[in-house]
Design brief:
Length: 125
């Protein structure tokens, strides 16, 4: 190797869960993520090219990083998820306005096990 290293985009993210079967159904049915396959205690989903793996841990789910899921219309996504019973911690709100006028909006909600997830949307001025 010549010393130059360029890492690519994130290919896969793993999140521990208490119950793979229940979490698989929630991520598929409530969030609408495409289910790729399940192998043993691992459930794989496609998040627009990044693979999400839900893995059962004997000691239960851990506090982990927040997954920020990009959406085109944060208000519409918020409304749809609320009708599916998702509990929001904070509704859509402005996080930052860039010098070019682009706005970044987020809405935080709980997963099946009470850990935070978020919707993220960039709105062009």
């Amino acid at each position: 190797m010549d010393g130059a290293l360029k890492l690519g985009p994130i290919g896969q993210i793993s999140r521990t869960v208490n119950d793979t079967k229940q979490s698989e159904a929630w991520y598929r049915e409530v969030l609408g993520l495409p289910h790729l396959y399940t192998f043993g205690n691992l459930a794989f989903f496609d998040c627009a090219g990044t693979r999400l793996v839900l893995s059962h841990e004997a000691q239960g789910a851990k506090n982990e990083s927040i997954l920020y899921l990009s959406v085109g219309d944060i208000n519409a996504a918020h409304e749809i998820l609320e009708t599916r019973g998702v509990e929001f911690i904070r509704p859509p709100h402005l996080i930052h306005r860039h010098p070019d006028g682009t706005e970044e909006w987020m809405a935080f909600f709980k997963d099946l096990e009470g850990r935070p997830l978020a919707l993220l949307s960039k709105v062009q001025a």
